[in-house]
Design a protein that fits this description.
Elements lengths: L1 H11 L34 H12 L8 H5 L3 H16 L2 H22 L7 H19 L7 H15 L2 H10 L8 H16 L3 H10 L3 H7 L6 H10 L5 H19 L8 H5 L7 H17 L5 H15 L2 H12 L5 H15 L7 H22 L7 H20 L3 H23 L20 H8 L2 H11 L6 H7 L6 H14 L3 H8 L4 H5 L4 H4 L36 H18 L4 H17 L26 H12 L5 H14 L9 E5 L5 E5 L4 H15 L6 H4 L2 H8 L5
Antiparallel strand pairs: 1-2
Length: about 725
């Protein structure tokens, strides 16, 4: 009892009442919908990946490239000495000479990196300049054709670190722009864009950055134009500036981010600044809508689809549904790039979910759009495990649009199946992305989620059991509606998982007879591969919790090790618990008053408390445990049942039974929210202040236990005498 009652006292000061099944913060699903260029364009220019692949291909069969080499575009930097050896082994003299010069250039660049931490001396600056000039002259001296573009790029890079921007502009205009298309030419074009920017030609620089798909540089160059005034200024100079693609997309997504974060004014935008977003308040957003519609109608822009879609998405975010419908309808028929048209289609889909009727025509439309999104996800992902924009579109459309739409229409099973469909697709993505290599050999059941952080499980855990039975019947059926068939085909279906979940929930409701047919179907393999198996294997429900706590012994010192989650289970204790409770309840119903009834009542109390959310065997009725647990409104209150059975025993003529019961009541009441005998606060000097609560159930139970201990000291064992809670209660002399 000692430490455990103190822990329970601390828990008792937490909010009380019927707690929800899951108390964690779930995902918001507020993914950005507006996208007129691929999101990887914000990671840097496309030529970086192409140059990286060039070196991987050059060394193919000689140097293995890992995922970091590929996704970080760092193959050459990570292996440059090895690449040089490959060239030498091949007898490629031209490449060998180039690589030596390239490595000299990289070494000079590394010297500039040091300047972030210390200022160079004049001598150091002069030495660097000499080295850079030597690289420049060596690059200029190349007269071959095989590596002409590589050497020219090296020449422009040397000019860049020397500050010879005019030389780079001349080199581009006189020679480089006539080179054939290649990753090296794109890299030189990017340097030329930098030259334009440094000479004050901001929009011309953006034109060049856009041609190399370098939206991140456009973001940097246009940093002070990320608002309506900036958009208007750029439009006035060039209605078709590529910079507008970035600025419009950024503006619309910042409207969403501002609405999500809800800052009160411009001084309340600290978090938005932290994530490099901008505060866009309602008045500016509404003004943008009017400007966007004007631009779309003027005819100066070659891509009115961009502007109609931006107006529609902004109105949708602001709650202007009718306007959003009209504007997105206009966008579907307006001119624009293919990406813009796809963007309009995706946003139109989201907008419809707010006001549509779920008739056959609409569900047919939805099915077509879901299949279209599946194709877009696959196309943009290509051969890589890439969590792309269209996965975000589908996520938001389903979670923020379709789920509430179906729930409001009285179709909760379909709403949950849609949610689970997205969870399964997310799981499939991560399985592909990480290939589960670190988890080979584990049972498939390991990936079944019973976590309060999993929104599908939370919804199922919050259902009454009969509702969950109905849901599983729905996802294992063949519905007449094609959209429903599409959805349930992608939802998770496993008899073992659902038999366990349904059986466990029936037990939580106290419906043991209903639970048995489901629990009987569980295999020990399944039970051993649940995260609760380590608790199930090491705790027993017939151990008297108030006299003995059952500690859990972990197999590994590493907290997150799988060895600490999974344990071999050899018997179905949940099933055994059900059968034993039914047997005890049957005997209890047939037994008259007296010692046999008291013993049965005590045994039932032991089991009820152990299987409650406060007991060591909480896994009997739940799949997870938290410090804020309490009985839920649709469940049987196991702890309350334990108290009722203990109250029947506390006036027993059997003194041993009476002592055990009084001690048990003082212990059990400590765990019930609102029942604690005292609370702890602190004064202004942070001294502990005890606040006694004579009206509380635990206070009264401790008073009865103390009276019994005072009047019958010979019947109190050493365990009770050493109880620090009882000692503290005695020390204050029963006075509040």
């Amino acid at each position: 009892m000692r430490k455990f009652i103190i822990a329970a006292v601390l828990l008792a000061v937490l909010p009380t009442g019927n707690m929800q099944a899951c108390v964690s913060e779930g995902p918001t699903h507020n993914k950005y919908m507006f996208s007129v260029f691929r999101r990887d364009a914000m990671d840097g220019p496309a030529y970086l990946a192409d140059i990286n692949q060039y070196w991987i291909d050059y060394c193919k069969g000689r140097i293995a490239a890992d995922d970091y080499d590929r996704t970080g575009y760092t193959f050459y930097n990570n292996h440059r000495s090895e690449v040089l050896k490959v060239a030498q082994t091949k007898g490629d003299q031209a490449m060998t000479a180039y690589l030596k010069l390239l490595n000299r250039y990289i070494d000079v660049c590394d010297l500039f990196t040091v300047d972030r931490w210390s200022y160079p001396t004049k001598e150091q600056l002069a030495t660097r300049k000499q080295k850079a000039l030597a690289i420049l002259n060596a690059a200029k001296a190349y007269r071959g054709t095989q590596l002409r573009q590589q050497y020219t790029l090296l020449q422009m890079r040397a000019n860049m670190i020397l500050g010879y921007d005019l030389a780079n502009a001349n080199l581009w205009n006189q020679h480089v722009k006539r080179f054939g298309k290649s990753c090296w030419r794109e890299a030189m074009q990017n340097i030329y864009a930098r030259t334009l920017y440094k000479s004050g030609k901001r929009l011309e620089a953006c034109d060049q950055y856009a041609l190399t798909n370098d939206m991140n540089s456009i973001k940097r160059v246009m940093g002070n134009y990320r608002n309506l005034a900036g958009i208007k200024s750029v439009y006035a100079q060039n209605p078709n500036s590529p910079a507008l693609n970035y600025l419009v997309q950024d503006f619309v997504n910042n409207v969403q981010e501002t609405l999500d974060q809800k800052p009160k004014n411009s001084d309340d935008c600290e978090w938005l600044n932290e994530i490099d977003a901008k505060c866009i308040f309602r008045n500016e957003a509404l003004a943008f809508v009017e400007f966007a519609k004007t631009v779309a109608k003027q005819g100066k822009s070659a891509t009115p689809c961009l502007w109609w879609t931006a107006a529609g998405m902004t109105d949708y975010l602001l709650g202007n549904q009718q306007q959003a419908m009209e504007e997105t309808e206009q966008a579907l028929n307006a001119a624009g790039t293919q990406r813009m048209s796809d963007n309009a289609r995706a946003i139109r889909l989201l907008v419809t979910t707010r006001s549509a009727r779920l008739d056959d025509a609409y569900t047919t439309y939805l099915l077509g759009e879901m299949r279209w999104l599946d194709g877009m996800i696959k196309a943009e992902r290509s051969t890589m495990a890439y969590d792309n924009h269209y996965t975000d579109v589908k996520d938001r459309v389903v979670h923020k649009g379709l789920e509430p739409l179906f729930a409001k229409a009285g179709r909760p099973y379909m709403a949950l199946a849609l949610c689970d469909m997205m969870r399964q697709e997310e799981s499939a993505y991560y399985a592909m992305a990480y290939k589960r290599e670190e988890q080979k050999g584990y049972s498939k059941y390991q990936y079944m989620r019973h976590s309060p952080w999993d929104e599908v499980f939370c919804q199922m855990d919050s259902m009454k059991t009969d509702q969950l039975v109905g849901y599983y019947r729905f996802v294992t059926s063949t519905p007449n509606n094609a959209l429903e068939r599409y959805t349930v085909a992608r939802a998770f279906k496993d008899d073992q998982y659902f038999n366990d979940l349904i059986g466990t929930k029936y037990m939580a409701e106290g419906a043991f007879a209903k639970a048995i047919p489901y629990l009987e179907k569980l295999s020990t393999e399944f039970m051993s591969n649940q995260p609760i198996s380590i608790y199930e294997a090491q705790t027993n429900y017939d151990v008297v919790r108030w006299f003995k706590r059952q500690p859990i012994h972990y197999n590994s010192n590493e907290y997150y090790s799988p060895d600490n989650e999974y344990h071999e289970v050899t018997t179905n204790k949940k099933l055994e618990f059900c059968k034993e409770m039914m047997r005890l309840q049957s005997q209890y119903a047939l037994t008259r008053q007296g010692q046999p009834l008291e013993e049965l009542s005590y045994q039932l109390a032991v089991r009820y408390f152990q299987a409650s959310c406060y007991g060591d065997c909480w896994w009997i009725t739940h799949h997870y445990k938290s410090v804020s647990d309490s009985a839920r409104s649709w469940e049987l209150d196991y702890a309350k049942q334990a108290i009722e059975h203990l109250n029947l025993c506390k006036h027993s003529q059997d003194e041993q039974m009476r002592y055990r019961t009084l001690y048990a009541l003082a212990f059990v009441h400590a765990y019930i929210p609102g029942n604690s005998w005292m609370s702890i606060t602190y004064d202004k000097d942070w001294n502990e202040v005890m606040n006694y609560r004579p009206e509380s159930a635990q206070y009264k139970a401790l008073a009865e236990l103390n009276d019994y201990a005072t009047n019958h000291p010979e019947r109190i064992d050493e365990y009770a005498r050493r109880c620090d809670v009882l000692q503290r209660f005695q020390a204050m002399n029963h006075q509040p």
